[in-house]
Amino acid sequence: MRVVAVLHTAGFAGFFAGGCVRDELLGRRPEDYDVATDATPERIVKLFDRTAEVGAHFGVVLVRDGQETTEVATFRTDGTYSDKRRPDSVRFSTAEEDAARRDFTVNALFLDPTGRTAGAAAPSGGTIIDYVGGTQDLAAKIIRAVGDADKRLAEDDLRSLRAARLAAKLGFEIEPGTAAAIRRHSAGLSGVSRERIGDEVRRMMGHESRATAARWMWELGLVAAALGCAAPAGECSTRHLAGLPAESGSTVAMAAWSLDLGFGHEGEGARKTAQGWRRALCLSNEEKDELQATLSELANLEKDWAGQSVAVQKRHAARGGFEAAMMLLEIRSPALAQDVRSKLGWLASFGGGIAPKPLVTGDHLIEMGMKPGPAFKRVLDGVYDAQLEGRVTNLREGLELARGFGVS
Ligand code: ATP
Ligand code: MG
User: Fold this and answer.
1) Nearest ligand 1 atom, CA 20
2) 113 and 42: one domain?
3) What is the C-alpha to C-alpha distance for residues 90 and 58, in angstroms, rounded to an integer?
4) What are phi and psi of 228, to 5 degrees?
5) Does residue 249 fall inside a structural domain?
6) What residues make up the domain containing 324?
7) Which of 23, 162, 199, 209 is the pocket-test mutation for ligand 1 (most atoms within 8 Å of CB)?
8) Banded pLDDT at 31 (limits 50, 70, 90)
9) Chain mean position to CA 138
10) Is the model's pLDDT at 113 over the cut of 70?
């Protein structure tokens, strides 16, 4: 509101724009507020104390006010997208043309919070400026491309993924003409940068509507191009995705989705799946490691856990990926998950718990005159196993055992 007021006082238009207007009108809390204006980036920078010109080239200036950052963007028309990432050029233009460059009608609404611009009254105050019929589509819960769907996808194929994500997140349908165009263009998604695809998929998987998003992707034929795999066949299952708690993170959701799609998790499967998804979605090292650990811990729980020693079970239980694997096991085999949970309760009851601080450390071994080397780790592991199993309960016993392993 303050950003808009400054623009108005200086004689410029200032509207809330895009996703925040859509969310306000739906009674949802917007994730962030974007402002659109006829002021050029040069003027915007002069009007506010704290600005950053992240995309001034594209007409976008970040305005900071206290803790808040608002994206203030000059009304613009996008040129062609020859690199499939961002428009080659932008031309500053009118609010109407700015609405026309946006992806879906429900994302192309403006809201003048001061109500000075002519338009329908918004429930939260102010007026709605609608050049593309977004108000009707919002009421009818429809995702519809602005203008000719085929052309809009040819400009930027990422819009197909955005349609799936938004339809899922909002609980909307995709207008049949738009959906048909997305199916026709599904292969085009392969040409979009892996970073952008990864960001959209991460946002889908991080949201409670993840199973619906996966279903849309299947129905629109987007799975193969997005994940860089063969087109999935048979019935679409979202059993694992739908079974996750609503607030789950995007990485465990990717693990769940990979199981729904029949990617491997046993043996080399976990590594291969994680590697493939890393490449397709430009995952970070941490995300890839977590995905792989989740899948391999799941395989361990299903195949080997029951026969493993106390120390090995505790070591697995302390590993990254174990909790996520348990969430998946609860969906796949509730009875087995129940067994593991009660075993974990028992494991936590002795030997200092599941992952106690080691009683004997490398420093102790050095004090005892041992030189760091391959034997070093074997001794530490052996003493720690004994601690986990409750055979060693204090430092004195630990050092004694270390001596028994040949350290004097
Ligand atoms: P969310 O609430 O999930 O963030 P959003 O619609 O706000 O959804 P953003 O990525 O934040 O999505 O984009 C903000 C606005 O920018 C959109 O509402 C839309 O008007 C426009 N936009 C974003 N990406 C595209 C695109 N690829 N093509 C055309 N317009 C886009
Ligand atoms: Mg947004």
Assistant:
1) 7
2) yes
3) 6
4) 60, 40
5) no
6) 263-354
7) 162
8) confident
9) 25
10) yes
Q: For residue 70, give both structure tokens.
A: 């608002």
Nearest to 69 by CA among 45, 46, 52: 52
Cα dihedral angle (385, 388, 389, 390), rounded to 10 degrees? 120
Query: What's the pLDDT tens digit per position in 68-78?
Result: 899 999 999 98
Amino acid letter at 403?
A: R
Neighbours of 8 (CB within 10 A): 16
Report whether pLDDT(408) > 60.
no
Position 2 pLDDT exceeds 60: yes
φ/ψ (deg, to 5) at 103: -75, -55
Residue 148, classed as helix, strand or coil, is coil
Tokens of 278: 């890393």
* Nearest-atom index, ligand 1, CA of 156: 27
Task: Please enumerate in sequence order all residues whose Cβ is within 8 A of that of 335, keeping only pairs 6 or more positions apart, or say none.
Answer: none
CA 35 to chain CA centroid, Å, is 25
110 and 7 co-located in one domain: yes
Q: Tell me the CA–centroid distance for residue 54 and ligand 2, in Å.
A: 16
Query: Which ligand number lies closest to the CA of residue 199?
Result: 1
For residues 328 and 274, state if they share a domain. yes
Alpha-carbon gap, residue 126 to 138, rounded angstroms: 18
The residue type of 84 is: K
Query: 0.85 cut: is pTM over it?
Result: yes
